[in-house]
Design a protein that fits this description.
Length: 706
């Protein structure tokens, strides 16, 4: 079978189709702004789930409103009647773009939705109800409303609407006797995932004075967060002092309480404008019986449906029923073949559209596992893509079938993109180049096996670090020129890599020496050979086993020689591969050991083992020992052979660099044990920059020694 170049396999991801939804910003106490926001929401697919928040004169966002916006997963903010500058400031605090109400259907942020009539299936048996013209605020909140122009347009459409003759029709529609226009905005819309949602909850009956803004606004936002898919708790808004005139309403309301007996009470009556006595009186009108029992849960098999008399309590915290994490949209599985150059994506829309409009697409699932949710990564996938939570979001038209070309970046591509985004320029450091070369062709997990690191250090040919160490020692004892001359002669003649028998690997426990040396040979990191001692020229030489001849001779002068023996047998010597030898001398191995440990714990990882970084407005470069992606988090940090090298100044510089790189995790690693005091100091530094600290030392890198 022909093998396609750059083919990475076949995977399944999910696509969700949903409307672009917004939060409406109104002045605190603005009844007109509240009505106008509802009129706009009533013309938008998903409008019943669009929250409305009041903004006081000082521009403060109350915590409850901030939580409502976060839970609602909206993509934009609409300014209804705030001063423009204040509206933009509030939207910025919420992390949203601000759109004026007049442009809500034209701006790129919020226009990707459609009219509710374009997602409704079939013709209704009766017209949908909305509030009576210029009537009480509770009607507008419960059923929705339209401007005169929008009402006329709706009348000309295929979706019939009407204003009721009396308010009781709106009350009855909320309990299933008829339908409200507002509720139709949720057709073909809901959550595909909900985490932390109670299995079943009490019905909520919110009671309000007919024009109490606070009650109506609180109910609107509570209902906006109600589960459309996984929960079935009714939410009804009723006016005080009117229900007693609604004939047979108690019997009609009873239908919303006939649910499995998995919770108590059956209903919670809530109000901010009606006294408790008024709530109890309304409960009696509805035939409810007070109870002190309060519980939620799920049983299997499900119990029988509850029967009258149904129970109630008043003024419980009903907001707890809607505090859960959710993702919206109707989903479809998408089977794609992943190529390095891009993947064709084609799937039928899970939403049936009956008219034009815009929509959002969210792609999520396996292809995006491990990618950091950074703004700079999304355009790698599609030029117009953005992140929305863990999903890739695209704005497009409503279609029967969607077709796109997406590029699924590798973790290595994403790693380079993130680093390029936070620096002016970067390149692999000397250590990084050697480490990258070893990453490409070797299984780095071998470095974590018992005795291997110590064997490599023992076989390492001393170079720069060893020379520097000897020079410092000479200076410290007042060396004279002759001493330096002798040292230079000794180092100048050292052209051959070190080779030793396994028994002389003093850093390795005796019982592991041969095993460690043989492992290095089996991986191609070292070679076996014999030592030839020449009696004529006096030189010793390493002869690889494949070049050993029956009669020993000196590789230099060709004189007859002899192979070194250990008592009665030939001694086998081991010598590191050239690149491995140089990497060991340059201190690259600790970098690779840390990368091996992190990758072993989280396979969805990609790391650079050292890079030189240039930042805008600064001269020269700084070096980072490791930078990469680990399980979707950006990680950067410093690695030492000995933890004693971590001074306080060093750690301050390291944490500042990680913060500048936008890292989620700062890594502090050493081959030996990192003292608790060092860890505590680094953790305190990370807390001030809101970065997670990750410590790796001998406990993870050299577990055989524990």
């Amino acid at each position: 079978m022909e093998q396609h170049v750059g083919y990475r396999g076949q995977v399944i991801m999910q696509a969700a189709v949903l409307p672009a939804r917004a939060v409406y910003l109104i002045r605190e106490g603005s009844v007109g702004g509240f009505r106008r926001a509802i009129q706009e929401a009533s013309t938008r697919w998903g409008g019943v789930t669009e929250p409305i928040i009041c903004v006081p004169e000082n521009g403060e966002i109350y915590p409850g409103y901030r939580q409502t916006v976060e839970l609602s997963r909206v993509v934009g903010a609409v300014n209804v009647d705030l001063p423009n500058e204040q509206a933009h400031d509030v939207a910025q605090q919420l992390g949203l773009e601000c759109v004026p109400l007049s442009q809500v259907d034209a701006e790129a942020t919020t226009r990707f939705t459609c009219h509710p009539s374009h997602v409704l299936r079939g013709a209704p048996t009766a017209a949908y109800l909305l509030a009576r013209e210029e009537e009480d605020l509770w009607e507008v909140t419960a059923a929705g409303d339209l401007t005169a122009e929008a009402y006329a347009d709706m009348q000309r459409s295929s979706v019939p609407v009407r204003r009721p003759r009396s308010s009781d029709e709106i009350g009855r529609a909320q309990v299933g006797v008829g339908d409200t226009l507002l509720q139709q905005t949720a057709v073909q819309f809901g959550e595909y995932r909900a985490t932390g949602l109670p299995a079943e909850t009490s019905a909520v009956i919110w009671v309000t004075q007919p024009n109490d803004l606070n009650d109506c606004l609180s109910f609107w936002n509570l209902r906006a967060l109600r589960s459309l898919t996984f929960g079935h708790a009714p939410m009804v808004l009723l006016p005080a002092n009117e229900v007693e005139h609604w004939i047979d309403f108690d019997r009609q309301t009873a239908r919303i309480f006939a649910r499995p007996a998995e919770f108590a009470p059956d209903a919670v009556l809530v109000s901010g404008s009606v006294e408790p006595d008024g709530l109890h009186a309304l409960a009696r009108l509805l035939g409810l019986q007070h109870t002190d029992e309060s519980r939620v849960g799920r049983t299997f098999p499900p119990p029988a449906l509850r029967q009258a008399p149904f129970t109630y309590q008043i003024n419980l915290n009903v907001r707890q029923f809607v505090i859960f994490d959710r993702e919206y949209g109707l989903t479809a599985p998408v089977d794609i073949h992943v190529f390095d150059t891009g993947s064709a994506v084609r799937f039928p829309s899970p939403v049936a559209f009956y008219g034009p409009g815009g929509t959002l697409l969210h792609f999520f699932g396996q292809p995006f596992d491990g990618l950091p949710r950074r703004r700079c990564v999304a355009p790698l996938i599609h030029e117009n893509a953005t992140w929305h939570g863990d999903s890739i979001q695209l704005k497009t038209r409503a279609e029967e079938t969607y077709q796109f070309q997406l590029l699924i970046p590798s973790l290595a591509q994403a790693c380079h993109q993130v680093l390029a985004d936070v620096t002016e320029n970067y390149e692999l450091s000397d250590k990084g180049r050697m480490g990258a070369a070893l990453q490409e062709t070797n299984d780095l997990s071998h470095l974590l096996e018992p005795g291997v690191f110590e064997a490599m250090v023992g076989l390492m040919t001393p170079r720069s670090k060893s020379l520097a160490k000897e020079l410092r020692a000479l200076v410290n004892r007042g060396a004279i020129d002759q001493d330096f001359a002798e040292l230079a002669g000794r180092w100048g003649s050292r052209t051959e890599r070190r080779y030793l028998p396994a028994q002389q690997l003093d850093r390795v426990p005796k019982e592991l020496r041969v095993t460690a040396a043989e492992k290095l040979s089996s991986w191609g990191w070292a070679e076996r050979g014999l030592k030839v001692s020449c009696p004529r020229c006096g030189l010793d030489n390493f002869v690889p086993l494949e070049r050993v001849s029956p009669a020993a001779s000196c590789p230099g002068c060709s004189a007859p020689a002899s192979y070194s023996m250990d008592q009665t047998t030939l001694s086998v010597f081991y010598r590191l591969d050239t690149l491995i030898d140089r990497a060991t001398d340059q201190g690259v191995l600790p970098h690779l050991m840390v990368i091996a440990a992190l990758t072993g714990e989280e396979p969805l990882s990609s790391f650079l083992p050292g890079a030189n970084l240039w930042f805008p407005g600064t001269q020269g470069h700084v070096e980072v020992d490791v930078f990469g992606i680990c399980g979707g988090k950006v990680m950067a940090g410093e690695i030492k052979t000995s933890a004693s090298e971590f001074t306080e100044d060093q750690m301050r510089r390291d944490v500042r660099l990680s913060a500048r790189l936008g890292a989620d995790v700062h890594l502090l690693a050493a081959v030996d044990t990192v003292p608790q005091a060092t860890q505590d100091f680094a953790r305190a530094l990370c807390e001030t920059t809101n970065i997670e600290l990750r410590v790796l030392d001998s406990e993870r890198l050299r577990p055989s020694e524990q």
